[in-house]
Structures are given as structure tokens and as C-alpha cells.
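Case study.
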Amino acid sequence: MKGNSFLKTIKILAIFVLAGLCSSNAFAQNRSISGTVVDNQGIPVIGASVIVVGNSTIGTITDLDGKYTLSVPSGSSISVSFIGYETQVIAVGNQSVINVILSEDSEFLEETVVVGYGVQKKSDLTGSVASVNGDDFLSRSTTNAAAAIQGKAAGVQILNMSGAPGQGSSIRVRGYSSNGGNLGPLLIVDGLKVNNIDYLDPEMIESMEILKDAASAAIYGAEAGNGVVLITTKSGASNNGKSSITYGLKMTNQFMGKVDAYITDAQEYIDYVRMKGGQIDALLEQYHYDGTSTNWFKETFEPSWTKQHTLTIQGGNNNGHYLTSFNYVDDNGMVKGDYDTYNRLGVTINADYNIYKWLTLGTNLSVTNTKTKSVSQQSNFSSVFGAVCQIDPLTPFYYTDPSQFKPEMLNAYNRGEHIMRDENGWYATSKYSDSPNGHPFIQRDRNKNQYGSNLRINGTIYANITPFKGLVITSRFGSRITQSNSHNFTEPYWGTSASNGGFSTNYSISANVNTGMYYQWENFANYNVDLGKHSIGAMAGMSYINQTNDNASISANDPDLMTGYEPNMQYINYIKSNIMKTVSNSPSRSASISYFGRLTYSYDNRYNLQANFRADAFDSSKLAKRSRWGYFPSFSAGWTISNESFVRDNISRNVLSFLKLRASWGRNGNINVLNNYPYDATLSLNSAWFQYHVEDGELSLGSAPNGIANPDLKWETSDQVDVGLDARLFNNRLTFAADWYIKDTKGLLVSIPLPVEVGVSSVMKNAGSIRNTGFEFELGWKDVIGEFSYGINGNLSFLKNKVTYLDELAGRITASRGGVSGTDNPIHTVFEEGQPIWYFEGYRFLGVDSATGAAKIDDVNKDGVISEADMTYIGSAFPDATYGITLTAAWKGFDLTVFGTGTVGNDIFNCVSRAGDPFRNGLRYFYKNSWSESNKNAKLPDPRQVVTDWHFFGSSACLFDGSFFKIKQMQLGYSLPRTILQKVRLSNLRLFVSLDDMITFTKYPGLDPETATTTATGGMGFDAGSYPTMKKVLFGVTVTL
Amino acid sequence: MSLGFVACNQDLLEIPQKGVTTIDNFYQTDEDAESALTAMYANWAAGMMTTVGAPGNFIPWYALFNLCGDDFRSAGKQYGASDFYGELNEFRYDSQNTVVEPVYSRYYSMIYYANLVIDHFKDGTSATMKRCVAEARTLRAYCHMMLAIGWGAAPLADHLLGANENLPNYEGGQKGLLEWAAKECEEAAADLDERKSTADKDGAVKFTKGVAWTVAGKAYLFAGNYAKARENLKKVIDSGKYALVPTERWAENFHASGDGNEEKILDVNFVYTTARTNNQLSLRSKWQQLNSWCWRTDRLASFPSWIGIAVGWGCCAIPYEFAQEFLENDGDSPRRKASFLTPDEFMYEMEWYAGSQELSQEEKEKDPKRGIINTDGLYGNNIYMPLKNMPIKEDVTNNSRTFGYTNQLVFRYAEVLLMYAEVAAVDGDADGLGLKCLNDIQRRAGAPVTALTLDNVKKEKGFEMWLECCRWPDQIRWGDTEKLKNHGNKIPSLKDAYFTDGEATHRLYVTYSYPNGEGYSAFQEKHKLFPYPYSAMQTNPNLQQNPGWE
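After joint prediction, the assembly is written out as follows.
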């Protein structure tokens, strides 16, 4: 629809331009000229336009041999142009034969786009591909490659589930097309399929292409149902063969943004507990409350630093290029002490070389080692963030003497329980509230010796063989070697007497070692031939993938676990010999075989057609033999309207440089949902145990089926139609792209809850469908005014998502109650036909009876009582729209980037505030907006009346608009003038300062709407206390030698 | 290139699954029958003992059949703590209550595992196969009996169900389902082992003839078929394989030392073993129940050393009226003293800490290391402190104080005797066996001996079988629901004036709160049956909800 009005605008413009141009039509004496137009290599250019300058009504195009003849007024000049070539203007003078050699427009040629198993000119694309340039990844404070594309491409949503150091981001392409957790796109880095891109230094990325529509992605078949992300890392080639050494340093100071989302003031807390009817005054007297008012956020967090060093050496010549880079990240999060840290050391070596004219060899290698320590969040029990949100401000951060202890704490202390402390004192247990999370430092310290490390070696080597012109045969071998280790050692502790997570009397220890070996071998051939106006391309190939994993783990727990407890004894080796250990090891392998092909045809640079096909077969751990093969076709077409003569003859290229309409249909699959022989119900051998003897407890082992089989299981299939329009106007200063798509995903794997009486809870079936539809817009403007250049890029995506079918046996699927385990909150999300996926189902809060302060809950079924039957749609965690805006400006040596991104229309359910204990702390919002005798027009009811009311705390009163706009980056840089640099033999020196994630516009009263979610399936939008995005001040320098 | 195309052989995609075998090769031999039966027992043990599946339900079936009775008060930290208990106890629950749901689904899960044995080996000819099928049938009958008691005409799952099979409510109604269960047991009994003797502990942790007769007797009794109930219960009595433990060992029935003793007909067996990890073991142990049944020791001035668990959750209190009646009947009988403590017993006779008994009464009265130190007191408790199910040292291993390794009691001989006494009181006691049964219980308890009347049996069963899943179903069966109306109305908190008001000596007193509103009236007609869980109603369109819960 937007496209239509856009077309209208173009028409009006065209009429205007035509009128202007035609008015200067003049009559003069004519002379005949002729000639041949060829390219640099002497090949005729077919269809090049030859036009009289100043009179575009006089012109022609070259024929199949590149020849033309034209009658022109004497004294005129001709303009010879062809798309992709630099336009030449030649004065006719006395010449009657004018031969023209067109040289390729280098700027235009560079606009190629990486597609599966090949490269295409952007102008030839018939599918929907978002391309993010490496410049967008430079000088960012984020250490994560996925996070760096947030807000940069329409139709691509980045989910940051946590702001903690080293936490990866999730990518969603065109919505949510599965009911399960496997919604991420296929990730391919330099031709190598990878599990995640957390290991990549964003600065190493040359470009990132997101294949959004099914036609583009179909070449990846059964794995492409959630889109494909192709990443090309820097190779040294773009440096034009110049050698350079670049060093970059980024120092980021990061800190907690919001410290008053929860009640942090003692007087407010006391007041609120009184409002809830908690008998706090007696307690204040009993414990001789001394006026303590602790802001737990300020005590738990402190500003910290992230350091990033990058050293890049690159060079090359006509025959080859190389690039090697070292990257080091040392990120220490805002929790006091070194408990949330991320360290990464990465080395990249990329090289290519033309051995012979017909043979190019290349290699990409990246070696990364990471180590991550993290603190707990998003849990009802045992979470640092749960603790800091729920504890009361009356409690001091430390007790310095046992006489200050709460009686239970003193009892525990006298019993010899492990009361945690540091050099400042004992971590104080509240005398007032009894949250199972206890003191945040208890949750921090419990797992202080927990860490995970990952070594990844990713490499590809390839050979391109060109036996004759037009044919390139590629053989590419890629491998990933992964080695990951994790260690954990947990001490007993006493935090509160709460039943879950309040205390533990056990030590526990665990260690895991995983080694993985993945390789893929791909062989494919690209053949391109131009026959006059006909351009034909073909590609065919095959791939074999093999992956093996070998994991071993060991763990044990016991109150009397180790032979010693000093830090140097906290290893598996020193477990007491009589302790039962859990050990596991079961090597696994998976494999797949694929054949794929592509045909492209274009006529006269106006009409493009493309067809893709892929056949995939997966191993028996995923699919039964009889349903092993899947076939994935796609078709697409493009019409470059701007190359039609009726446009070219009538509209100046300076006004409309490029206009293309494209449409595609394709089919993809999602195989990620199938793992571990899901179609098979076999006998679980001797895994059940029972003791028939009272005295000795000897074990007897038994076997039973592990479920009910469904051998017909298949992958999920997505069919997608995409219609798009690309335009460049005003000398390419304005770029515009719009896409509309409709994506139907069928065969969702649904765990069909069986009738309870069957005795087996569920069976897996392909029994659901989702429809995602959306509009995507990208609009860019760039211009140069003297020494001042600037640009604006914006993108906007609308998304609608609906479950279109769900097997009636499944009825409706509800995710875990309360969003996080262990809460009695009745709120849950539901997957149900006719609704958006995983919508929030809860009670509808209608407001407050201003006379009594009572909460009004919607009695949906009008039966006079509020019961679970009254739970209904109250919102959805998925945004209606996401957008991003980037402003850039440069003047002399200064550069400025301001970048923001946001969402519209998503909801967040805050489950920190809850029914039950009136002493538990919660969102300040609830205190500020509650009914009281003096505030009868309040939004929220009398706290006393709802203090134990799960209907209220499971209602829309706790659901908030999660829309936000966050200014992710405000960066100012200054590059020193060359005149100064040359004196110190530097080619570039740039200093920059940036304020990242500094300003968030939102109505959400909790910490950070962006990270306020759990990662569980159906757990989107539940905030149980999550690690917010830290605010950051970044100082950086880049020096190039 | 061509090399690439040829290289791929589809055999590369054949990856055998580890740790499994095909179902087709199983269910053939005697060994397979034993193995399938063991899987059934494993599932039964998990379902009867653990918390798997839903948060914080402790032992759901045990909670469900105790919590609604007039002999129980949901207590704990405060109103709303462990609210799934409070919801049941105060009749505030609905079909999503996290105790109701898992009990229902676990019974059907147990039935599924039983049906795996029955359907695959029902035509088996060997003695082993016949016994395995008989054990599975008895377990299946037990589950259906409990379903009938709880839900009425629950669906009858007498075969392995297909994935899409939606059973309707049992057409014969509650009574019919009870009688079906009873008949199953009668038929199965022939192929079952019999407990070897009263000393045969292993014979008390599996489905034996004694269990089958007990289930049959109980099911017939609940169906009102006294003749058949008498016939089956008498078989248990006549078998001579069971006996009441002597008075001084009465309390042992509820602790680890009583596992499989002569009075036990069926225990869910669980023995600490180093062959499984603590985590695996905890999923079989009743540690959450031990915690919930243990006092809130964190609110006491010291930690009585004989208690097995450091900090209990204090979810169980004994209602004042019931305790008072018990005390008036039993006085200081050993049974009463092992069931609950009077204020003086709690404050002065109990050992609070090593050496606490050596103080004089005067010193004890001023002893700061005893009493209820927390000024909120013990929510839900009145002046009597429950003791029967308190975890003591022997109930937990020295390996971990919070892990319980006591068997879960399902049936003991005392219940059989009391059921027989009831049958005799209603249906005649020509040979005097009914009176003997009643009097044997009374004598053993140290309580007064009475005549055989239904009222006396009711009273005796209430005291003897307190917190053994009898009182609530009996009250519904007998129509004695008057007292249930007070549930959740006036909630006591037990406090110690020595700490709350700074009095010179200890003094226990009770304050009351009305969290459900004053004059709250709990029990309604619909509560006679539990609602079919929300999840069951969602998945089975043929299931008819119970009256009042629609």
C-alpha cells in the first residue's frame, strides 16, 4: 500500500520532469553518427543508451553487437550510458563514427550481496535480503556480534535476554514461526555453519546479510525456516591491497541505570507494609529499628570497566590478500566483585591467493577462547536480581555482630550453619521479609567458583577452480572444533528459613567437558553466461555435514563432600571416596546430506527470474528413515522498472536512479525442533529402579517404554510470499525499500497433551500452524554539503503473528504457571488457535472501586465468582513493531553517530511483586499508585485487600506496556588531520567517546524493558528480576600505522 | 566435483540410538515380566513419595486425603504460605489447585504402568507372569479405589489406552467403581504371594494377598457392601500375617524403625543406598513432607536435639476441638502422648537441649532457651503441639539432615481392624470379632475400652488413624461434615508471653486472626468430591465435571 502511493509519486515526478525536458526541444540541422559500444575487455555492450545531451527525446540503444546509429543536431554532445558502467559524454563535432569504451562503475560493482553459495549484484536480487555493512559494527561498546545488528535491519529483531557480560543475543528473522524454543536463523560465517556468533568480534565483520524471504533462504532448505544470516569477515581485500597495522582500544565504564524501580526508601517501605496490613510496627519496636534505610541497588552494584583491545594486520597485492587480527575483551559486570565477567581472546587469520589464473585458494581461521562467570537472575528462588528486588530497605547490608541477627539467623548461627560473610560483616538476613532469595551477596557467593570456558577453532579452506570463462567450481571444507569446560562448586549456606533456596546444607561440585568436531564438505559449481540480452546463471552442488560430540560430566553433592575445602581443594579429585557421584558420557553423532541448485535468468537487465531447489536428508536421530528426505523449492522474479525505456526515456537518472519490483515464493524447513529420536518410542532399558527389600535396599532394575511413538514426525515447513520494492532517487542520495510478506509455518511440533487418563502425559505431533505477516521499510538519506556530510537511516517493521491452526487434541497449550518455576501466580502464557503465540492469559483488572478500595476483576463468564474460568487474553510479549534510526554526520575530522532502537506494543508481566508475604518488597509503582483513604482515585486497589489475592497479582494490573525507545549509541569521534599524522608516520588516528544505552524512553516501571524476559519457551515477557542493560560510557582510540 | 557427489552414502545417516531397545523384543519372558513390574513399582514409588511435577506439593496424595478433615489445620509461617495447603484445608481450592491436579494424574500414570504389565502378560502361563499380572491388577485397583473416593465416577482405565482415547466417567458411578476395584482384588488374590509371617518385612512393601484383601475390604466398605467387606477384611485378620505392635512401640509405626513391621500391610519402600545420588534419592524420599510436618524450629528459642530436621516448615497443626476430644478420651495414654503434646509437656517435659531437663521447674519457667521466641508465634497452632509425624533423628540419614529415608505408610493392620469393627457395628457382630478388633486397638493405645457402637468406632478411628488419610473420606462417607464449616474461619497463633510481653515466666497463649473474613463458612456440598483437574477437563472432552465444579 505504501508502495502504491510511492509509485504514484514517481508518476507525478515523471510527468513533471518530462514537461521540463520536452520544452527545450529545438529544431536544427541533423547529422548521422554511428559506432560500437564495448566494455574494457572489448565485449559489446548491448542495450546501452545513446542520448543527445540536453534533448533526451533524441536517442537510441545499442543492438546485439553493441552498434548504434543516430541522427543528431550538429554541435551537440551524446551521452552513452549503461547500468553498471560510468556514463560517458562525448562532443560529436565532425565525427561520424564514434566508438565508445565504457568502463565499469566501481561504486556500482561493489554493491554485491552474498547469497547462498554465491554472490549476486544487489540490483539482480529477486528476494528480500537485508544487508548490514561492517561500518555499523565499528566502535561499538557491545562485544557481541548479534547485538551489534540490533535496529540496523528491518525485519530482524534482536532479543537481549540479559545485560550481563558475555550473554549472547538471540536473532529473530520475520517474527516467531515456531512454538518451541528453536527460533533462531541458520548462521553461516564465511561459508561455515555455526551454532552461534557470540565468539565473533563485531569489528571483524565485513558484512552481514540476512536472507529474509523463503526464496533467498530456500537454498539452505530444511534449516532455513527461520531465515539465514550470512556473515563475511574481513579479508584484507577491501583495503585494496594496502598493508596496514591497526590498533584499537575501547574502555567502557558501565553501571546500573535505574536504582529506584523497587522500593529503596525505608519510610516508603514501612508505609507500604502498613498499607498492606503487615504488623510492622510491632516488629520495628521488637527489633529496635534504628532508622536504617538501605538502597540495595546501590550496595549491590558498582561501576565497572570493560576493556577491549584489537590489533589488525592486513595486506595484499593483485594475487592475494591476508588479514590477521587479535582481539581481547575483559568485561566485568556491575555486580560488586569479579562474579559477572566475560573474557575473550580471539585470533583470526583470513587469506586468499591466486595460485594460477584458474585456481584460487583461500582460508578463514578463527580461534577463540572465552571464559564466562555469571550471577543468577530471572528465578523465583536463588537469584541475585530476585534478591535485590525483594529485600526490604530496613535491613542493613551487613551485620557486624551476631547480637544484631534475626532470631532464626542466630539459631542457625548457633547450630553451626554456614552464615555467609565477607570482610565487612555477615550478609544480613531481613528481620522483616522472608524472601527465598535472601541477601543478594549470598546468591552471588554461593556459586563463586562457577565458570564456563569455551575454546572454538573454526576454519574453512576453499579452492575456486575456473576451467573456462564463466564456470567456477568451488570445493570448500569447513570444520569447527569446540572444547568447552565448566566447573561449579557450591557451598552450604543459610540465608533465610524459606523452604526453597533459603538455605542449603550441601556442598555440591560438578565438572563438564565437551568436545565437538563438526565438519562440512561442500562442492558446487557456478556457471554464468551472457547471450546478448539474455543472462543465464546456474549453480549446482552438494554438501555433507557430520558432527560428533563427546561430553563427560561428573557431579556430587553432600554435606560432607570434600577432603578439604580450601580453594585449591575444590576439584573433583578431592571428593571423598565414599560419596556417590553422578557421571555421564554418551558420545553422539549427527549427519546430513544435501543437494542444491539454482537457476537465474535475466533479460535486458529488466527482468530477473530465479529458481532454487534443495533436497535435504537427515540422520536417524532426527527423522525416521521413511520420512528422511525433504524438498524445498523457491521461485522469484524481479522487474527493474527503471531500466524500462518508458522510464529511462522520460525520467532523468539523476532523479530516479533505480526502481525495482520483486516477488517471491519459497518453502523452507526448521529441523532444529527434531532431536534425540523424537519419532521413536523405544524401551528405556533398566532405567527404572525399585527396592523390594526393607533391610538392605538392594536395587532391582526395570524397563518401560519411554513414551508413545509417532514415526510420522517431520520438520516444520514454512511457505512464504514476499513482494518488495527497491528504489534509489536523487543521485542515489535517497534509498528506499519496502517489503510485504506472509509466512505460513505448518507442522509445528506440538507436544499434544494426552488425556490425563492415558497415563502418558504427551506425544509429539506436527499439529500446528503459525502465520506471520509484516511490512518492512528501510529509508535512507545521505548528502554532502561542502565539508559537512550526513546521513539518516531508518527501518521499521510491523509484525502480526497468529496461531492459525492447532490440533484440537492439543486444544490450547499453556506454558509454566507464573512465568518462572516455583511461584503460585496463576498467570501463564497460552498457545492457542486464533491468537498471537504465547499470549498472556490472566485476570483482567478493571480498576478500583474508589469507595472501598477493592480491586475489580473482570468476571468474564459472569458466574458471580472469580475463578480460573475468568482468565483471559490480557496481552502479548511480542511487539507489533520494531524500529531503528541511525544518524551520522561528519565535518572535517569530526564524526557523530546517534543510534536508537525500539519496540512498540509488547507487554511485560512483572512477577516480582506478588501475593502472600506483606513484608516482601516490590515495584515502587505499586506503592505509589495504591488506593488509600487519602488517595481514593488511585489506579491500584487498597493493598490490604489484595495482599494475598492471586487474582489481583495474576491480573493485568501487573502487566505493563513494554514499548521502549533506547538510544543505544551517541558517539562523537575525531580523526586527526593527515598533515599532523604524517609527521608521526601514522595513516590514521581516531579518538572517540560514546554514551551507550544511556537513555531509555519507556512506561515500564521495572528495571529495563529490553531484558525483562525469561528465556523459557512461552516465557517471553516475564520479569522475575533480570540483569538490565548497563549504561555505558565508552572511550576509544584507533591507530593505523 | 564428481568425487563430492559420489562420496555421500546414505548409510552415513544411520545412527543407532543409545541406551534403548525396541519394544518388539521386550514383553516376552519371565525376566521381562519382572522387569516391567519393577518399572511399575518404580513409578508407583515416585508417584507416592515425591514432588515431581508440581512445585511444593510435598506428597500430594497424602496431603489431599488428610487436609480437608476436621483433624487438620493448615499452619506455617503465616496466612498464604504454602497456600495450596491452606486452599484445601479452608475449602478455597479450585480445579487448578496444585495438589488436586498431580494426585489425579499420578494415579493414571501408575495405572498406565500397571496396564503395561497386565496387557502384555495377561495371557502368560508361567507362575511368574501370573503373579506379576496379579500385582499390577491390585495396584491398578488401589488407584481406582482412591480415584473413586476422591472424585466419584472417575474414568476406568482397564487397558492400555490409545493416544486419543477419551474415557467417559465410569458408568457405574462411584459405587460401581469401588466394587470394580474390589472385585479385581478378589480375582487377583489367587495369584498373589502371601506375606510369609509377621516378621516378613519385604512382604509389607509389595502387593500381596493381604493388600488385595485390604483394598477389597475398604472398597466394599466405601461402596456400602458390608457383607463383602467383612469377608475380605476377615481374610486379612485370619491370615495371621499381621499384628498390632505393642503399646510401647505404637509411635514406631510412623518412623523409620517401623518400616515393614508386623503391623504394616503396605509401605512404599525406600532405603538409603549409596548406589544412587542424593538427587535421585531425594526424588524418592519424603523429605519435603518431613519438612512440612516438622515444627517451625526457627521460631523456637532453641533447637530440640531429638528433632531430625533443622528447620521445619510447620505446615501441620492439630485443631483445638479435635485435640481436646482426643485428650478427654485418651488422657495421658501412650497413643495420645505420641500424637500431640500438651502445653506443659511441650514447655517443661520435652527435652529442649542437652541438660534442659536437669533444671528445676522454677528455672525452666525462666529459661530463655525454651519457648517460642518469635513474636509472631506459631501461625495456625493452638496450645497443643502435633508430634505424630514429626521427623526424629532416625527418619533422616546422617548423610543429610533434610533428606528423609522413612517408608511412606499406605495401610496398617489397625485400619483393617477398625474397618472390621465398623462393619460389625453396623452389620452385626455375631462372633464378637468386631468388638475384639475395637478393644484390641483401644487396649494397645492405652485408651479406655468401650462397647462396639458405630459412634465408638468413629471416635476410635479418628484418634488411632489421625493423619493417615482416613478421617476426611470417612467424614464424607458418614455425612459428618458439620465441623468442616469452621475451617479457615478463626485461625489461632500460639505465642509465648515470656518473649512477646516480657513476662517473667513462660506462658503460652493464643491469639486469633480472620484472614478469610469473620464468619467465613468453608465446606459446601460440592466439596464432597474433588473437582476433576483443569488439565483433565482440557484434554478429555468426554469427562463430566463433578457437581458444583462445572
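Observations recorded in class. Residues 127-151 of chain B form the longest helix (25 residues). The longest strand of chain B covers residues 491-496. We will return to this complex in the next lecture.
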